[in-house]
Amino acid sequence: MRARAAKVMPSSAFGHVGTALLPANYPQFFERAEGAYVWDADGNRYLDYMCAFGPNLLGYRDPRVESAASAQAARGDVMTGPSPLAVELAEKFVEIVAHADWAFFCKNGTDATTIARTIARAQTGRRKILIAEGSYHGAAPWCTPFPAGTVPEDRAHMLTFTFNDIASLEAAVAEAGDDLAGIIATPFKHEAFANQELPTQNYARRCREICDATGAVLVVDDVRAGFRLAVDCSWATVGVEPDLSCWGKCFANGYSISAVMGSNRVKQGADSIFATGSFWQSAISMAAALATLDIIRDGKVIEKTARLGQRLRDGLDQVSRRHGFTLNQTGPAQMPQILFEGDPDFRIGFAWTSAMIDHGFYLHPWHNMFLCDAMTEEDIDQTISAADSAFASVRAALPTLQPHERVLALFSARAH
Ligand code: PMP
Which InterPro entries does the entry mention (predicted)? Predict the structure, then answer.
């Protein structure tokens, strides 16, 4: 499949779903998925800790979501205008998300973050947007981490600061002066190739205070973390409400829909912009979203995934130590990042995840992972016991491990 793809698809698959930046034994094409598992094009089954990079929250093909989606599929999907489900879904979000007075639907996370940026500028009539250095907000020219094909002007009026560092935030605000349109914040630091970091309450509050004092718009990019930490915007966990929030990935359990939500404070800006897409009104995705929200509203999915994530974290800590490795397991337990201490070029992490793939466990050597509600304690315990033998084989091979050449090249090509 890869050889065929290389002939007819640029770089055989764009972005993080390509396997060029993964160990050689990683599958690139998947034939089907069910519950917590995926099957690759050769029929191998994996317990999937990537959850499609986030969209799988309840388990693949959750029957409750599938039946809502197929009922709508029998009635129509993309039509000449939105279905009444759009209004129902917006009403439901307004009920669930404390800061939201309205919701707008699109397809991908990049749509949502790009629209939020436009609304912040329309609302304020200003230009400067602040983002944390290294944060990921999507693949558009203003935010892509890979500069090929972009020009510096695509990032004009974008300023950066260091996540959780109030002094650097304030310095960027001072640089923006009276032209500050907004701050776009990820709910926690969750970028690739790095340890994750939760926000301090002081940092999150300072973002809010600055926006209140300057009239700038505070945006939380909850595309990755939304509904995995709170049945609300993720910054509810630190007591801060944004003006705008961006959502995507998991709220329709894998159906393609994203959203921008906002308070009435920025409604005028939102009313004034033009944003649309041929497939943004897909009623099937909205039916799937309504079903998913009904299931997750009681918070039990968050509780369970956090509990299973902690079980995994504790178990891996224990067995890795037995083999003389120290893991940096960071971020919320239900969205784990697992890196090895003393592994600056990721060669140990690559060897370990590569061994895990051979055991049938799809983990990632440099991107945060996700737990889903279909996982069981038995799944976690099997992961830990496979990890035990994977650590042993990495320990034995340690002197011969080499860094991955594409990863080394990537570090020098990254825009920021
Ligand atoms: N923001 C964040 C925080 C993300 O994690 C992602 C996707 N990884 C995006 C934006 C972009 O979403 P999409 O890939 O759906 O365009």
Answer: Aminotrans_3, Aminotrans_3_PPA_site, PyrdxlP-dep_Trfase, PyrdxlP-dep_Trfase_major, PyrdxlP-dep_Trfase_small
- In the chain, what is the greatest distance between 2 CA atoms, to the nearest angstrom? 62
Whether this model's ipTM surpasses 0.90 comes out as yes
Candidate of 51, 53, 249, 280 to mutate for ligand 1, largest count of ligand atoms within 8 Å of Cβ: 249
CA of 110 to the centre of ligand 1 (A): 6
161 sits in which H/E element: strand 158-161
Structure tokens at 80: 């000449």
Report the atom number in ligand 1 closest to the C-alpha of 249. Answer: 15
Q: Is 159 helix (H, G, I), strand (E, B) or coil?
A: strand
Domains and CATH numbers, the chain: 2-61+301-415 (3.90.1150.10), 63-296 (3.40.640.10)
Task: Write down the residue that tokens 């990032």 correspond to.
Answer: 155
Predicted confidence (pLDDT) per residue in 231-278, tens digit? 999 999 999 999 999 999 999 999 999 999 999 999 999 999 999 999
As a three-state string, the secondary structure of 85-118 is HHHHHHHHHHHHCCCCCEEEEECCHHHHHHHHHH
Whole-prediction pTM: 0.97
